[in-house]
Specification:
Rossmann fold, single chain, 3-stranded antiparallel beta sheet, alpha/beta, 9 strands, 6-stranded mixed beta sheet, 246 residues
């Protein structure tokens, strides 16, 4: 499947009516740009990369709120993912998501900060052992359970939203997620992911949007500030550590 043939279930995000320009999170440059200009969502994988407070997680949360995900083909499987948080912004109330006429209703919102409560809920639900193919999610490490959720919930063609999934993953598990994201894209899914990980955003063919005081701008992987900093640290960590000590 070529890039031009890959479906765009979620095509574009735009502001809905007036919005409170002086209220957070609309004062964040990236969010303000999103409201003023809208944002096209490309086929395949889209990464939002930026510092803490840049607005990347806020944007992903709002898109996940706005996209109707109706669960998996397996009627017993909760494919919607962890529910909202009281800390979520009001951004989703001011956005409209433009979708394709036959956009897939399938998908999952994976947010690292709520995965522990989600795993507890999933493990205690009726028929949990059957739903998770005999896996006891709570008997495994947090990272192992996290990967199991990825393997069993990222199955149907649809739209998937991830908020900093690397927080629970080792280097090897991060590579496994890179491979899974590549498969999802090749099968016709879209993924929008907020990340700090140079490993994750190395997925071939992914769209990378760098988020910061400049707003939102496309970037190549090797031009990301994130990648430059990691390379510099790994090449000569003593330079960074000396600066911190000073």
């Amino acid at each position: 499947m070529t890039t031009t043939e890959r479906p765009r279930h979620l095509r574009r995000v735009e502001a809905r009516g007036d919005w409170p320009r002086r209220q957070w999170p609309f004062t964040i440059p990236a969010v303000c740009q999103l409201m003023e200009d809208g944002l096209d969502i490309e086929p395949g994988i889209t990464f939002l990369v930026g510092e803490n407070g840049s607005g990347k997680s806020t944007i992903v949360e709002a898109l996940a709120h706005g996209y109707s995900r109706h669960g998996a083909l397996n009627r017993m499987a909760d494919n919607v993912g962890p529910t909202g948080s009281r800390e979520d912004s009001v951004l989703h109330r001011h956005l409209q998501l433009l979708t394709a006429p036959l956009a897939s209703p399938h998908g999952f919102f994976l947010r690292a900060e709520l995965m522990h409560s989600y795993l507890n809920q999933a493990a205690s639900a009726e028929g949990a052992a059957r739903e998770w193919q005999g896996q006891d999610l709570l008997a495994r490490s947090h990272g192992e359970s996290f990967v199991e959720v990825l393997r069993q919930r990222f199955v149907d063609v649809g739209v998937y939203f991830l908020d900093e999934p690397e927080s629970a993953l080792s280097f090897q598990s991060s590579l496994a997620l890179v491979a899974l994201l590549g498969v999802l894209a090749s099968e016709g899914s879209q993924v929008v992911c907020a990340t700090h990980s140079p490993v994750l955003c190395s997925v071939p063919g992914a769209t990378i949007l760098e988020i910061g005081e400049h707003g939102i701008r496309p970037s190549a992987w090797d031009e990301l500030e994130l990648v430059r900093h990691w390379r510099g640290f790994l090449d000569a960590p003593e330079r960074y550590l000396k600066h911190l000590a000073d």
